[in-house]
Amino acid sequence: MLGAFVRAFRTPDLRNKLLFTLFILTIFRLGSVIPAPGVNSAAIRDQMEQVQAADDAGIYALVNLFSGGALLQLAVFALGIMPYITASIIINLLTVVIPRLETLKKEGQAGQGKITQYTRYLTLALAVLQATSIVAMARTGQLFQGQIRPETYLPDQSILTLVTIVFVMTAGTGIIMWFGELITERGVGNGMSLLIFTQVIAVFPSSIMGLWEEQDTWLFALICVAGLVLITGVVFMEQAQRRIPVQYAKRMVGRRMYGGSSTYIPLKVNQAGIIPVIFASSLLYLPQLAIGLLGEDSSNPVVRFLQEYFVGGTHPVYMATFFFLIVGFAFFYVAITFNPAEVAENMKKYGGFIPGIRPGRPTAEYLDFVLTRLTTPGSLYLGLIALLPMIALGTAGAQQGFPFGGTSILIMVGVGLDTVKQIESHLQQRNYEGFLR
Question: 338 pLDDT exceeds 60?
């Protein structure tokens, strides 16, 4: 492994790509600790240990995770990459519904560029809405659950100051998008994924230290061993795939013979990635939003029901709902992102077939059957991984800084594996051995 790193840095163009990527990530992390204008960051840091705002297992906690803790510091990059993720998910869903977007998706690089442009516009619009919500929560004290007075970290609450903070946070989201595209174009790995990876691992050391201070030595060691076992299991599941063999028949085009090759269609067990967890977390934020709209009047039976079962993230009803939502969204997302009929039609067009399966509709039915069989364990795996931090909060007495959360582990392992594979492909092009031997 260390030898592969040395060989990577000895290769001039690969070294330049790696250094450029590290440079952009460093600037990105710097912007995550620079406070927005009008924010007293010193007051926030002095009382940050008392803040329990990230306890809720909703979209609010997810935004704070994807911002690397910058949200609770009201930094320039406080929104992190979350607006772009949300915009990408919405555009993917609309592609199935709106024929115009579906046509653009089939037009190749030009159509994809147009869809990317729509995603940017939607990202900025969502950033404005999200920044306005965060500033409003900070102004009323809800951002820190009332544990820090708003006058402490926002001494000037004039309209001009608040609008400036919203503008700076929105501009920060635009810069983050630009950083991601720069890394994808000139660096190594997928830019947006690496930015998410950076924000997630940024809070990992502090979470480990918090766990060390809260627990005794033996329990801390046990949690660390369990975390390593969990990471190993996630690596195994993320790498697991079913390879469908595909044979291409020989055909004459002019005077040349084409085809006759064999390949395969890789179908991952976790074909949906982390998107179902984000969907489910977003949907389970609605009860907390309803409580905010209806007020915290304990005499209201609806509010009392929501507070008892859907606030805190440790009630069995909440966990069961979260689990089944993840399973359902996993099947839904796989269904809209992988079209067996389209894949079968493309294979038939180019003379490809699965051995033992007739081309056309039988191939589509076979792919759909295999995909359903794979998605079932994949969705159950996602649900169990996502429930781990809630189970830890409810049984082990861990605090909100529990480091081995399901979402964090999925992001770290998935992005880490993809980046290592890209570096390995660069090394193998130069006849070097890669990281994965």
Answer: yes
First to last CA, the chain: 9
Per-residue pLDDT at 57: 43
| Cα torsion angle, 383, 386, 388, 392, sign | negative
Q: What is the DSSP string of 225-277?
A: HHHHHHHHHHHHHHH-EEEEEEEE--EEETTEEE---EEEEEEETTTTTTHHH
- Residue 36 is classified by DSSP as P
Q: Write down the pTM of the prediction.
A: 0.76
Q: Over 50: is that where the pLDDT of 400 sits? A: no
Angle between helices 217-239 and 406-429 (to 10 degrees): 50
Residue 121, phi then psi, degrees to nearest 5: -60, -45
Percentages helix, strand, coil for the chain (3-state, rounded to 5) are: 70, 5, 25
Give CA–CA dist 403/206, Å, rounded: 9
Q: Count up the domains in the chain and report the number.
A: 2
Same domain, 422 and 332: no
| Bridge pairing between strands 251-253 and 256-258 | antiparallel
Q: Are residues 53 and 175 in the same domain?
A: yes
Structure tokens at 210: 């918090």
Same domain, 7 and 67: yes
- The residue assigned the tokens 């046509």 is 103
Tell how far CA 108 is from the center of its chain: 25
With helix as H, strand as E and coil as C, how does 319-364 read?
A: HHHHHHHHHHHHHHHHHHHCCHHHHHHHHHHCCEECCCCCCCHHHH
